[in-house]
Design a protein that fits this description.
Belongs to the class-I aminoacyl-tRNA synthetase family. By secondary structure, the chain is mostly helical. The chain has helices at about 20-35, 45-50, 55-75, 90-100, 105-110, 110-120, 125-140, 155-170, 220-225, 245-260, 260-270, 275-300, 305-330, and strands spanning about 5-10, 40-45, 80-85, 145-150, 180-185. The chain folds into two domains: about 5-190 and about 305-330, Rossmann fold, CATH 3.40.50; about 210-295, Tyrosyl-Transfer RNA Synthetase (Orthogonal Bundle). The radius of gyration is 21 Å and the shape is globular. The two termini are about 35 Å apart. About 35% of the residues are buried.
């Protein structure tokens, strides 16, 4: 990336991230700190989490746990701004200003909304779920972010953000908001699938704990989950995502954590069976997660330190956010 880049990304406080979160997003966030200087912001987007019912005490604990895990994975508050979304009220203020620029037809087209409307009990689908893409746009535009690490399933939301920014700029005759560009954070072998259904992404919302590896899982838990991971009736190790998604998912995980290509992993296991791949992958995961887990234990012992990081992060975020809000309100004639 050339020039002055401003990176923003957010993660919901689902508690402890799973291996898919780490490989597909968090590890890339750590690398971005090294290339973008002090222009990197990572938010724990707790307001987005409220689109479904949250037990208050559990949500509070999950916010802390997610912060601890991000830090343990390598997010450095000296290099990045790490903050809790709800502690920066300008997010909601800008969301309202942008809502008044956004046709509801745009929201009706959002794929995730249409899928939710089709599967959920419509009497319980709330306005927050419908409008949260505007909050996502506000999250990004509030800091005039230019580059957004996203997975392929979030590209539609980023396109909406660009449409909203363009509408605002055109209506008021200024280039106030930049057009944010995607940084696809799920490249080759970074899209980690469910251990129980390898046609679906590994997800925290999956009710089957056996479907994912949490980064705090013990060696015994890792061993048990990988041993029972769905593969197929062929014992050979190959990388064929379309034909053999289960085995290919295990090869992808091995590749992502070992630094080897998928071809190299397959070559290493030529003449061996899937059970041996599972045993090898188990050891790779356990070894990889060990220093992260040790750091988590260390950070959990100093709760005040975690709170201070979030407080400092919110202060730094508000310094930037307040400038954008003042400018937007001035253009709107309400400042």
């Amino acid at each position: 990336m050339a020039g002055a880049q401003r990176v923003f990304s957010g993660i919901q406080p689902s508690g402890v991230p799973h291996l898919g979160n780490y490989i597909g997003a968090i590890r890339n966030w750590v690398q971005l700190q090294k290339t973008c200087g002090n222009n990197v912001m990572y938010s724990i987007v707790d307001l987005h989490a409220l689109t479904v019912h949250q037990a208050p005490l559990l949500l509070k604990r999950n916010i802390k746990n997610m912060t601890v895990c991000l830090l343990a994975c390598g997010i450095d508050p000296k290099q990045s701004i790490v903050f809790q979304q709800s502690q920066v009220p300008e997010h909601c203020e800008l969301m309202w200003l942008l809502s008044c620029q956004t046709p509801n037809g745009w929201l009706n087209k959002m794929t995730q909304w249409k899928s939710k409307g089709a599967t959920d009990n419509k009497s319980f689908v709330n306005i927050g779920l419908y409008a949260y893409p505007i909050l996502m746009a506000a999250d990004i535009l509030l800091y005039k972010a230019t580059h957004i690490p996203v997975g392929a399933d979030q590209l539609q939301h980023l396109e909406l953000t660009c449409d909203i920014a363009h509408t605002f700029n055109s209506r008021y005759g200024v280039e106030f908001f930049p057009k944010p560009q995607p940084l696809l954070s799920e490249g080759k072998n970074q899209r980690i699938m469910s251990l129980r259904n390898p046609l679906q992404k590994m997800s925290k919302s999956d009710n089957q704990e056996m479907a994912r590896i949490d980064i705090t899982d013990t060696p015994d838990q890792v061993h048990n989950k990988i041993r029972k991971a769905v593969t197929d009736c062929t014992s050979a190790v190959t990388f064929e995502p379309e034909e053999r998604p289960g085995v290919s998912n295990l090869v992808s995980m091995y590749s992502a954590l070992s630094g080897k290509t998928t071809d190299e992993v397959v070559e290493d296991f030529t003449g061996k069976e899937t059970v041996e791949l599972k045993d090898g992958l188990t050891q790779v995961i356990i070894s990889y997660l060990k220093p992260i887990q040790e750091k988590i234990i260390e950070l959990e012992e100093d709760e005040g330190h975690i709170e201070q990081i979030l407080t400092d992060g919110a202060r730094r975020a508000r310094e930037r956010a307040s400038v954008t809000i003042r400018g937007a309100k001035e253009l709107l004639g309400i400042n």
